[in-house]
Amino acid sequence: MARRQCSTAGVAVTAAVLAVLAVLCSGHPVPGGFVPLQPHFYDHTCPQLQSIAHAEDPRMAASLLRLHFHDCFVQGCDASVLLDADGSGRFVTEKRSNPNKDSLRGYEVIDEIKAAVEHACPHVVSCADIVAVAARDSVVLTGGPGWEVPLGRRDSLTASLSGSNNLIPAPNDTLPTIIGKFANQGLDVVDLVALSGGHTIGDSRCVSFRQRLYGQNNNGQVDRTLNPAYAAELRGRCPRSGGDQNLFALDPASQFRFDNHYYHNILAMNGLLSSDEILLTQGRETMELVHRFAANQGLFFEQFAKSMVKMGNITPLTGHAGEIRKNCRRVNHF
After folding, report:
1. In sequence order, which residues have a C-beta less than 8 Å from that of residue 224 and are 6 or more positions away?
2. Is the pLDDT of residue 10 over 60?
3. Tell me, what's the pLDDT at 2?
4. What is the CATH classification number for the domain harbouring 133?
5. Domain count within the chain
6. Which range is the signal sequence, renumbered to this chain (predicted)?
7. Which of 95, 102, 215, 274 could form a disulfide with 221 if both were Cys (CB 3.0 to 4.6 A apart)?
8. Which of these ranges, 35-39, 122-126, 272-276, 325-329, has the smallest mean pLDDT?
9. Residue 43 assigned ligand-binding role
10. Distances (CA, A) of 155 to 9, 36, 76, 131, 194
11. pLDDT on residue 59
12. Is 199 annotated as a binding residue?
């Protein structure tokens, strides 16, 4: 796939979502059971759609990529992360979980895309597939690699607050814990280091890395794996208390450009999150991969694309499982 370059940082990012749409090779849905995802799943049922959602926000590309990640790690890639509470008490929205509350963004963009999709092809395209395609196009539009997105996911009827709290890797998790959380999803160490490279775009909140500046027990000790000069700079806007929501670029050198500079930051001890820097300091295999991806951006792009396809295939609902939501925020009967 040819790469498209984005505009410079600070210019509005256009999240162009090409929902290339289809049925299976036979042209008919397979009754029941698991149906493999396919890039051309909607070719016959909605071939003309080219929905474009404009986000006047240069941070939105990273937000849509993260939205896909947080969706797939809980119940699989089923758009459960988009659901609001259903009013019946059957489940609590994942939007209230620790990883998502006051942090996860992009719901309105997905809503806008879904509205355009429903206008063109009513009740055909799942919200889960929209999230997957939006993540891919966000990477491409910020200068990163493209990949063919397998399609055919269906949407869940439930959400899991506990799953969101416990299954998504946290900024302060140890490397063995993060490796375990990835392994639970069928993702290996190579996938872990490659997908972490998504931190080449986007921001993090002060609350997510404060302990690196002031110590786990707030004793004022800077994390020894953090560049002291960088720590001093960060302390200027991330105080010992307060300022929890203050935002910091994960990759200050190229905040809105998808490249391999994230790995150069780690090698310079400028990884913002503990979960970034431990890739270098806590494991030989992860350390070697950091060096390899820092030295070869093409290699990183190739592996990132492969790992995104692999992540996007985590236990999808297919066939007659789940549903195709009309509104991404609620199940059809609510």
Report:
1. none
2. no
3. 38
4. 1.10.520.10
5. 1
6. 1-27
7. 215
8. 35-39
9. no
10. 34, 15, 10, 11, 27
11. 86
12. yes
